[in-house]
Amino acid sequence: MKICMIGSGYVGLVSGACFSDLGNTVTCVDINKEIVEKLKKKIIPIYEPGLQELVERNSKKKRLLFSTDISNSIKKSDIIFICVGTPTKNNKADLKYVFNVTKSIKSNLNRYKIIVTKSTVPVTTGDKIEKILNSKKNQNKFDVVSNPEFLREGEAIRDFQFPDRVVIGTSSNKANKIMKKLYLPLIKKGGRYFHTSRRSAELIKYASNAFLATKITFINEIANLCENSDIDVKEVAIGMGLDERIGSRFLRAGPAYGGSCFPKDTRALVSTGQMFKTNLSVVKSVISSNDKRSNLLLNKISKIMNNKIKNKKITFLGVTFKPGTDDMRESSSLKMIPALLRKGAYINYYEPTGKKKEFKSKNVNFFENIKDACKSADLIIIHTEWNEFKQLNFKKITKKRNFKVFDMRNLYSISEMKKNKINYFSIGR
Ligand SMILES: NC(=O)c1ccc[n+]([C@@H]2O[C@H](COP(=O)([O-])OP(=O)(O)OC[C@H]3O[C@@H](n4cnc5c(N)ncnc54)[C@H](O)[C@@H]3O)[C@@H](O)[C@H]2O)c1
User: Of ligand 1's atoms, which has the minimum distance to the CA of residue 86?
Assistant: First the structure.
Protein backbone atom coordinates (compact mmCIF):
# COMPACT_ATOMS: atom_id res chain seq x y z
CA MET A 1 0.00 0.00 0.00
CA LYS A 2 1.09 3.59 -0.48
CA ILE A 3 1.26 5.35 2.83
CA CYS A 4 2.07 8.87 3.94
CA MET A 5 3.09 9.70 7.51
CA ILE A 6 2.64 13.40 8.23
CA GLY A 7 4.99 14.32 11.07
CA SER A 8 8.25 12.37 11.29
CA GLY A 9 8.93 12.49 15.03
CA TYR A 10 8.94 9.54 17.45
CA VAL A 11 5.60 8.17 16.24
CA GLY A 12 5.65 9.07 12.53
CA LEU A 13 9.20 7.95 11.90
CA VAL A 14 9.03 4.71 13.89
CA SER A 15 5.67 3.60 12.55
CA GLY A 16 6.55 4.75 9.02
CA ALA A 17 9.78 2.74 9.07
CA CYS A 18 7.91 -0.28 10.47
CA PHE A 19 5.13 -0.05 7.85
CA SER A 20 7.79 0.08 5.11
CA ASP A 21 9.46 -2.98 6.63
CA LEU A 22 6.15 -4.81 6.07
CA GLY A 23 6.50 -4.12 2.33
CA ASN A 24 4.51 -0.89 1.98
CA THR A 25 5.83 2.20 0.22
CA VAL A 26 5.96 4.90 2.87
CA THR A 27 6.70 8.61 2.58
CA CYS A 28 7.54 10.31 5.88
CA VAL A 29 6.79 14.01 5.64
CA ASP A 30 7.78 16.79 7.99
CA ILE A 31 7.64 20.59 7.85
CA ASN A 32 10.97 20.71 9.61
CA LYS A 33 13.44 20.77 6.70
CA GLU A 34 16.39 19.96 8.96
CA ILE A 35 14.76 16.71 10.10
CA VAL A 36 13.98 15.67 6.53
CA GLU A 37 17.48 16.55 5.26
CA LYS A 38 18.99 14.46 8.06
CA LEU A 39 16.68 11.54 7.33
CA LYS A 40 17.54 11.64 3.63
CA LYS A 41 21.18 11.19 4.71
CA LYS A 42 20.10 8.36 7.06
CA ILE A 43 20.92 10.45 10.11
CA ILE A 44 18.27 9.64 12.71
CA PRO A 45 17.31 12.77 14.67
CA ILE A 46 16.02 10.84 17.70
CA TYR A 47 17.50 8.12 19.89
CA GLU A 48 15.51 4.92 19.43
CA PRO A 49 17.24 1.52 19.55
CA GLY A 50 17.06 -0.37 16.23
CA LEU A 51 15.68 2.54 14.22
CA GLN A 52 18.88 3.32 12.31
CA GLU A 53 19.08 -0.19 10.88
CA LEU A 54 15.37 -0.23 9.97
CA VAL A 55 15.60 3.13 8.19
CA GLU A 56 18.76 2.14 6.29
CA ARG A 57 17.35 -1.21 5.18
CA ASN A 58 14.05 0.15 3.88
CA SER A 59 15.53 3.30 2.34
CA LYS A 60 17.91 1.09 0.39
CA LYS A 61 14.94 -0.89 -0.94
CA LYS A 62 13.31 2.45 -1.89
CA ARG A 63 10.24 1.64 0.22
CA LEU A 64 10.95 4.41 2.72
CA LEU A 65 11.13 7.98 1.46
CA PHE A 66 11.43 11.35 3.15
CA SER A 67 9.97 14.61 1.94
CA THR A 68 8.91 18.14 2.84
CA ASP A 69 6.46 18.14 -0.09
CA ILE A 70 3.21 17.50 1.74
CA SER A 71 0.92 18.01 -1.31
CA ASN A 72 2.61 15.50 -3.56
CA SER A 73 3.08 13.01 -0.73
CA ILE A 74 -0.66 13.13 0.04
CA LYS A 75 -1.69 12.89 -3.61
CA LYS A 76 0.30 9.74 -4.30
CA SER A 77 -0.82 7.89 -1.11
CA ASP A 78 -3.84 5.73 -0.22
CA ILE A 79 -3.57 6.06 3.55
CA ILE A 80 -2.55 9.28 5.28
CA PHE A 81 -1.45 9.01 8.91
CA ILE A 82 -1.53 12.22 10.94
CA CYS A 83 1.40 11.91 13.40
CA VAL A 84 2.00 15.51 14.45
CA GLY A 85 2.32 16.64 18.06
CA THR A 86 -0.68 17.43 20.26
CA PRO A 87 0.92 19.40 23.09
CA THR A 88 -0.95 20.94 26.00
CA LYS A 89 -2.28 24.49 25.79
CA ASN A 90 -4.34 25.82 28.71
CA ASN A 91 -4.62 22.24 29.99
CA LYS A 92 -6.24 21.12 26.72
CA ALA A 93 -4.78 19.28 23.73
CA ASP A 94 -3.63 21.90 21.23
CA LEU A 95 -4.90 20.64 17.89
CA LYS A 96 -3.49 23.38 15.66
CA TYR A 97 -0.94 21.04 14.04
CA VAL A 98 -3.61 18.41 13.42
CA PHE A 99 -5.98 20.91 11.79
CA ASN A 100 -3.18 22.48 9.71
CA VAL A 101 -2.45 19.04 8.31
CA THR A 102 -6.19 18.45 7.73
CA LYS A 103 -6.34 21.59 5.59
CA SER A 104 -3.40 20.36 3.50
CA ILE A 105 -5.16 17.01 3.06
CA LYS A 106 -8.37 18.77 1.98
CA SER A 107 -6.66 20.54 -0.88
CA ASN A 108 -4.97 17.34 -2.09
CA LEU A 109 -7.80 14.79 -2.07
CA ASN A 110 -7.36 13.66 -5.67
CA ARG A 111 -8.98 10.21 -5.03
CA TYR A 112 -10.33 8.05 -2.18
CA LYS A 113 -8.03 8.08 0.83
CA ILE A 114 -8.17 6.95 4.43
CA ILE A 115 -7.19 9.70 6.85
CA VAL A 116 -5.93 8.19 10.08
CA THR A 117 -5.25 9.99 13.34
CA LYS A 118 -2.28 8.30 14.98
CA SER A 119 -1.59 11.43 17.00
CA THR A 120 -3.28 11.24 20.40
CA VAL A 121 -6.38 13.37 19.91
CA PRO A 122 -9.38 14.06 22.18
CA VAL A 123 -12.80 12.55 21.64
CA THR A 124 -14.62 14.33 18.76
CA THR A 125 -11.41 15.27 16.89
CA GLY A 126 -12.23 12.73 14.16
CA ASP A 127 -15.67 14.34 13.82
CA LYS A 128 -14.04 17.77 13.44
CA ILE A 129 -11.54 16.52 10.84
CA GLU A 130 -14.42 14.99 8.89
CA LYS A 131 -16.27 18.31 9.00
CA ILE A 132 -13.25 20.19 7.66
CA LEU A 133 -12.73 17.70 4.83
CA ASN A 134 -16.40 17.54 3.87
CA SER A 135 -17.42 19.32 0.71
CA LYS A 136 -19.45 18.50 -2.40
CA LYS A 137 -16.22 17.92 -4.30
CA ASN A 138 -14.87 15.55 -1.67
CA GLN A 139 -17.96 13.33 -1.36
CA ASN A 140 -17.02 9.61 -1.03
CA LYS A 141 -13.36 10.55 -1.35
CA PHE A 142 -12.33 9.85 2.25
CA ASP A 143 -12.91 8.13 5.54
CA VAL A 144 -11.52 9.41 8.83
CA VAL A 145 -10.25 6.64 11.12
CA SER A 146 -8.82 6.74 14.64
CA ASN A 147 -5.83 4.43 15.14
CA PRO A 148 -4.17 5.45 18.40
CA GLU A 149 -0.53 4.54 18.85
CA PHE A 150 0.59 2.66 21.96
CA LEU A 151 4.33 2.38 21.31
CA ARG A 152 6.74 3.23 24.14
CA GLU A 153 9.86 5.23 23.43
CA GLY A 154 12.93 3.06 23.92
CA GLU A 155 10.98 -0.06 22.89
CA ALA A 156 9.05 1.51 20.06
CA ILE A 157 10.02 -0.88 17.26
CA ARG A 158 9.24 -4.00 19.24
CA ASP A 159 5.97 -2.46 20.43
CA PHE A 160 4.99 -1.64 16.87
CA GLN A 161 5.96 -5.03 15.48
CA PHE A 162 4.39 -7.05 18.32
CA PRO A 163 1.44 -4.97 19.51
CA ASP A 164 -0.87 -6.17 22.29
CA ARG A 165 -3.69 -4.64 20.28
CA VAL A 166 -4.37 -2.59 17.17
CA VAL A 167 -7.33 -0.30 17.79
CA ILE A 168 -9.23 0.90 14.74
CA GLY A 169 -12.09 3.32 15.22
CA THR A 170 -14.36 3.78 12.21
CA SER A 171 -17.94 3.23 11.10
CA SER A 172 -16.82 2.62 7.51
CA ASN A 173 -16.63 -1.05 6.47
CA LYS A 174 -14.46 -0.09 3.50
CA ALA A 175 -11.89 1.69 5.67
CA ASN A 176 -11.99 -1.09 8.27
CA LYS A 177 -11.22 -3.73 5.63
CA ILE A 178 -8.26 -1.77 4.28
CA MET A 179 -6.87 -1.06 7.76
CA LYS A 180 -7.19 -4.73 8.69
CA LYS A 181 -5.28 -5.69 5.55
CA LEU A 182 -2.55 -3.18 6.42
CA TYR A 183 -2.14 -4.62 9.90
CA LEU A 184 -2.62 -8.27 8.90
CA PRO A 185 1.09 -9.21 9.26
CA LEU A 186 0.99 -8.00 12.88
CA ILE A 187 -2.36 -9.64 13.61
CA LYS A 188 -0.95 -12.93 12.30
CA LYS A 189 1.85 -12.65 14.85
CA GLY A 190 -0.71 -12.44 17.68
CA GLY A 191 -1.68 -8.75 17.84
CA ARG A 192 -5.39 -8.41 18.63
CA TYR A 193 -7.32 -6.32 16.09
CA PHE A 194 -10.03 -4.34 17.83
CA HIS A 195 -12.57 -2.60 15.62
CA THR A 196 -14.63 -0.02 17.45
CA SER A 197 -16.31 3.34 17.06
CA ARG A 198 -14.08 6.32 16.30
CA ARG A 199 -14.88 8.09 19.56
CA SER A 200 -14.20 4.91 21.55
CA ALA A 201 -10.80 4.55 19.88
CA GLU A 202 -9.96 8.14 20.76
CA LEU A 203 -10.95 7.58 24.39
CA ILE A 204 -9.18 4.19 24.65
CA LYS A 205 -5.84 5.93 24.19
CA TYR A 206 -6.45 8.58 26.86
CA ALA A 207 -8.05 6.15 29.30
CA SER A 208 -5.10 3.74 28.90
CA ASN A 209 -2.49 6.42 29.55
CA ALA A 210 -4.44 7.85 32.48
CA PHE A 211 -4.76 4.36 33.98
CA LEU A 212 -1.00 3.71 33.69
CA ALA A 213 -0.25 7.14 35.17
CA THR A 214 -2.62 6.24 38.02
CA LYS A 215 -0.75 2.99 38.68
CA ILE A 216 2.58 4.82 38.90
CA THR A 217 1.17 7.54 41.13
CA PHE A 218 -0.54 4.98 43.34
CA ILE A 219 2.67 3.06 44.05
CA ASN A 220 4.54 6.36 44.55
CA GLU A 221 2.08 7.29 47.29
CA ILE A 222 2.31 3.81 48.80
CA ALA A 223 6.10 4.34 48.77
CA ASN A 224 5.62 7.51 50.85
CA LEU A 225 3.67 5.46 53.37
CA CYS A 226 6.34 2.72 53.36
CA GLU A 227 9.05 5.26 54.13
CA ASN A 228 7.14 6.40 57.18
CA SER A 229 6.29 2.91 58.41
CA ASP A 230 9.53 0.94 57.95
CA ILE A 231 8.23 -1.17 55.07
CA ASP A 232 9.95 -1.94 51.74
CA VAL A 233 7.76 -0.76 48.85
CA LYS A 234 9.43 -3.28 46.55
CA GLU A 235 8.01 -6.10 48.64
CA VAL A 236 4.58 -4.49 48.67
CA ALA A 237 4.67 -4.02 44.87
CA ILE A 238 5.68 -7.65 44.31
CA GLY A 239 2.95 -8.86 46.65
CA MET A 240 0.35 -6.72 44.87
CA GLY A 241 1.57 -7.55 41.38
CA LEU A 242 1.22 -11.29 41.95
CA ASP A 243 -2.53 -10.73 41.82
CA GLU A 244 -3.33 -11.19 38.15
CA ARG A 245 -6.08 -8.61 38.37
CA ILE A 246 -3.45 -6.02 39.30
CA GLY A 247 -0.27 -7.16 37.51
CA SER A 248 3.26 -6.09 38.34
CA ARG A 249 3.98 -3.64 35.53
CA PHE A 250 3.97 0.09 36.24
CA LEU A 251 4.19 -0.65 39.96
CA ARG A 252 7.73 0.64 40.44
CA ALA A 253 8.08 3.54 42.82
CA GLY A 254 10.29 6.38 41.62
CA PRO A 255 10.26 10.03 40.59
CA ALA A 256 7.19 11.76 39.17
CA TYR A 257 6.03 10.31 35.86
CA GLY A 258 7.06 12.46 32.91
CA GLY A 259 7.61 12.17 29.19
CA SER A 260 5.77 13.35 26.15
CA CYS A 261 2.50 11.51 26.86
CA PHE A 262 1.30 10.90 30.45
CA PRO A 263 1.42 14.51 31.73
CA LYS A 264 -0.26 16.02 28.67
CA ASP A 265 -2.74 13.19 28.14
CA THR A 266 -3.98 13.15 31.73
CA ARG A 267 -4.55 16.93 31.54
CA ALA A 268 -6.31 16.63 28.18
CA LEU A 269 -8.55 13.84 29.52
CA VAL A 270 -9.72 16.04 32.40
CA SER A 271 -10.50 18.74 29.87
CA THR A 272 -12.50 16.25 27.76
CA GLY A 273 -14.39 15.37 30.94
CA GLN A 274 -15.24 19.04 31.39
CA MET A 275 -16.41 19.26 27.77
CA PHE A 276 -18.90 16.48 28.51
CA LYS A 277 -19.73 17.78 32.04
CA THR A 278 -18.06 14.78 33.71
CA ASN A 279 -15.88 15.11 36.79
CA LEU A 280 -12.85 12.82 36.41
CA SER A 281 -11.81 13.17 40.05
CA VAL A 282 -9.40 10.21 40.08
CA VAL A 283 -7.41 11.56 37.14
CA LYS A 284 -7.42 15.05 38.69
CA SER A 285 -5.95 13.75 41.93
CA VAL A 286 -3.33 11.73 40.03
CA ILE A 287 -2.20 14.92 38.26
CA SER A 288 -2.09 16.82 41.53
CA SER A 289 -0.15 14.08 43.36
CA ASN A 290 2.34 13.78 40.51
CA ASP A 291 2.82 17.56 40.32
CA LYS A 292 3.81 17.54 44.00
CA ARG A 293 6.20 14.60 43.71
CA SER A 294 9.30 16.45 42.48
CA ASN A 295 9.05 18.83 45.45
CA LEU A 296 8.64 15.91 47.78
CA LEU A 297 11.82 14.33 46.40
CA LEU A 298 13.62 17.69 46.58
CA ASN A 299 12.75 17.85 50.29
CA LYS A 300 14.16 14.38 50.67
CA ILE A 301 17.40 15.48 48.95
CA SER A 302 17.65 18.39 51.41
CA LYS A 303 17.17 15.98 54.30
CA ILE A 304 19.81 13.60 52.91
CA MET A 305 22.23 16.55 52.68
CA ASN A 306 21.34 17.80 56.19
CA ASN A 307 19.83 20.93 54.59
CA LYS A 308 23.22 21.90 53.16
CA ILE A 309 22.79 22.12 49.40
CA LYS A 310 24.82 25.31 48.78
CA ASN A 311 28.13 24.60 47.01
CA LYS A 312 27.50 20.85 47.04
CA LYS A 313 28.25 18.87 43.92
CA ILE A 314 25.29 16.77 42.89
CA THR A 315 25.58 14.30 40.04
CA PHE A 316 22.56 13.08 38.10
CA LEU A 317 22.95 9.73 36.40
CA GLY A 318 20.42 10.01 33.59
CA VAL A 319 18.17 13.00 33.04
CA THR A 320 15.58 11.61 30.63
CA PHE A 321 12.22 10.48 31.99
CA LYS A 322 13.00 6.85 31.22
CA PRO A 323 15.76 4.73 29.68
CA GLY A 324 16.05 4.01 25.97
CA THR A 325 15.13 7.50 24.81
CA ASP A 326 16.63 10.99 24.51
CA ASP A 327 13.20 12.57 25.00
CA MET A 328 13.34 15.19 27.76
CA ARG A 329 9.73 16.35 27.55
CA GLU A 330 8.38 16.83 31.11
CA SER A 331 11.17 14.77 32.68
CA SER A 332 11.21 15.27 36.46
CA SER A 333 14.91 16.26 36.21
CA LEU A 334 13.76 19.46 34.52
CA LYS A 335 12.09 20.47 37.78
CA MET A 336 14.65 19.09 40.18
CA ILE A 337 17.88 20.37 38.59
CA PRO A 338 16.82 24.05 38.37
CA ALA A 339 15.49 23.89 41.95
CA LEU A 340 18.83 22.53 43.22
CA LEU A 341 20.70 25.20 41.23
CA ARG A 342 18.58 27.88 42.89
CA LYS A 343 19.71 26.51 46.24
CA GLY A 344 23.34 26.94 45.17
CA ALA A 345 24.26 23.39 44.12
CA TYR A 346 26.62 22.51 41.26
CA ILE A 347 25.12 19.89 38.97
CA ASN A 348 27.06 17.36 36.95
CA TYR A 349 25.24 14.86 34.81
CA TYR A 350 25.85 11.91 32.59
CA GLU A 351 23.32 10.89 29.97
CA PRO A 352 23.85 7.59 28.10
CA THR A 353 22.33 8.89 24.85
CA GLY A 354 25.32 11.25 24.76
CA LYS A 355 23.12 14.21 24.06
CA LYS A 356 23.63 17.40 26.04
CA LYS A 357 20.48 18.90 27.46
CA GLU A 358 19.71 22.59 27.70
CA PHE A 359 19.88 23.55 31.37
CA LYS A 360 21.09 27.08 30.63
CA SER A 361 23.35 27.52 33.65
CA LYS A 362 27.10 27.67 33.95
CA ASN A 363 26.77 25.55 37.07
CA VAL A 364 25.53 22.54 35.11
CA ASN A 365 28.07 20.32 33.40
CA PHE A 366 27.57 17.41 31.07
CA PHE A 367 30.08 14.52 31.17
CA GLU A 368 30.58 11.80 28.65
CA ASN A 369 31.20 9.05 31.18
CA ILE A 370 29.98 8.03 34.60
CA LYS A 371 33.36 8.26 36.31
CA ASP A 372 34.07 11.86 35.34
CA ALA A 373 30.53 12.89 36.23
CA CYS A 374 30.79 11.30 39.69
CA LYS A 375 34.39 11.81 40.74
CA SER A 376 33.82 14.96 42.80
CA ALA A 377 30.21 14.28 43.80
CA ASP A 378 28.88 14.86 47.28
CA LEU A 379 25.64 13.22 46.20
CA ILE A 380 25.00 10.83 43.31
CA ILE A 381 21.38 10.68 42.19
CA ILE A 382 20.30 7.74 40.05
CA HIS A 383 17.48 9.44 38.17
CA THR A 384 16.88 7.20 35.14
CA GLU A 385 16.86 3.42 35.09
CA TRP A 386 19.48 2.77 32.41
CA ASN A 387 21.07 -0.68 32.55
CA GLU A 388 24.56 0.79 32.87
CA PHE A 389 23.65 2.25 36.28
CA LYS A 390 22.68 -1.13 37.72
CA GLN A 391 26.09 -2.45 38.76
CA LEU A 392 28.20 0.51 39.78
CA ASN A 393 31.14 0.33 42.14
CA PHE A 394 30.43 3.63 43.84
CA LYS A 395 33.69 3.67 45.79
CA LYS A 396 35.63 3.45 42.56
CA ILE A 397 33.74 6.12 40.64
CA THR A 398 33.96 8.88 43.22
CA LYS A 399 36.93 10.31 45.06
CA LYS A 400 34.92 12.09 47.75
CA ARG A 401 35.14 10.34 51.11
CA ASN A 402 31.69 11.11 52.47
CA PHE A 403 29.66 10.84 49.31
CA LYS A 404 26.02 9.82 49.42
CA VAL A 405 23.85 7.96 46.92
CA PHE A 406 20.16 8.64 46.33
CA ASP A 407 18.79 5.83 44.20
CA MET A 408 15.46 7.06 42.86
CA ARG A 409 14.92 3.76 41.03
CA ASN A 410 15.63 1.30 43.85
CA LEU A 411 18.28 -0.47 41.76
CA TYR A 412 20.48 -1.56 44.69
CA SER A 413 19.98 -3.73 47.72
CA ILE A 414 19.98 -1.85 51.02
CA SER A 415 21.86 -4.63 52.83
CA GLU A 416 24.59 -4.74 50.15
CA MET A 417 25.03 -0.98 50.42
CA LYS A 418 25.19 -1.24 54.21
CA LYS A 419 27.80 -4.01 53.95
CA ASN A 420 29.87 -1.82 51.61
CA LYS A 421 29.49 1.12 54.02
CA ILE A 422 27.86 3.33 51.44
CA ASN A 423 25.62 6.14 52.61
CA TYR A 424 22.65 4.98 50.56
CA PHE A 425 19.09 6.27 50.26
CA SER A 426 16.29 4.99 48.05
CA ILE A 427 12.53 5.32 47.58
CA GLY A 428 9.88 3.83 49.82
CA ARG A 429 12.13 1.63 51.95
N1 LIG B 1 6.23 9.85 21.66
C2 LIG B 1 5.50 8.81 22.06
O3 LIG B 1 5.99 7.93 22.76
C4 LIG B 1 4.07 8.68 21.63
C5 LIG B 1 3.42 7.43 21.79
C6 LIG B 1 2.10 7.32 21.39
C7 LIG B 1 1.42 8.41 20.88
N8 LIG B 1 2.07 9.61 20.75
C9 LIG B 1 1.33 10.73 20.16
O10 LIG B 1 1.74 10.88 18.81
C11 LIG B 1 1.76 12.26 18.44
C12 LIG B 1 3.13 12.63 17.94
O13 LIG B 1 4.06 12.47 18.99
P14 LIG B 1 5.64 12.48 18.76
O15 LIG B 1 6.26 12.18 20.05
O16 LIG B 1 5.96 11.66 17.57
O17 LIG B 1 5.84 14.03 18.40
P18 LIG B 1 7.14 14.75 17.81
O19 LIG B 1 7.10 16.12 18.34
O20 LIG B 1 8.33 13.89 18.05
O21 LIG B 1 6.88 14.76 16.22
C22 LIG B 1 5.91 15.54 15.59
C23 LIG B 1 6.48 15.98 14.25
O24 LIG B 1 5.43 16.60 13.48
C25 LIG B 1 6.00 17.61 12.69
N26 LIG B 1 4.96 18.52 12.18
C27 LIG B 1 4.25 19.45 12.84
N28 LIG B 1 3.36 20.05 12.01
C29 LIG B 1 3.52 19.48 10.79
C30 LIG B 1 2.90 19.67 9.52
N31 LIG B 1 1.93 20.58 9.34
N32 LIG B 1 3.31 18.92 8.48
C33 LIG B 1 4.29 18.01 8.64
N34 LIG B 1 4.91 17.78 9.83
C35 LIG B 1 4.54 18.50 10.89
C36 LIG B 1 7.01 18.27 13.62
O37 LIG B 1 7.98 19.01 12.91
C38 LIG B 1 7.59 17.04 14.34
O39 LIG B 1 8.76 16.56 13.73
C40 LIG B 1 1.29 13.02 19.68
O41 LIG B 1 -0.07 13.24 19.61
C42 LIG B 1 1.63 12.07 20.80
O43 LIG B 1 0.81 12.26 21.94
C44 LIG B 1 3.38 9.76 21.10
Answer: 41
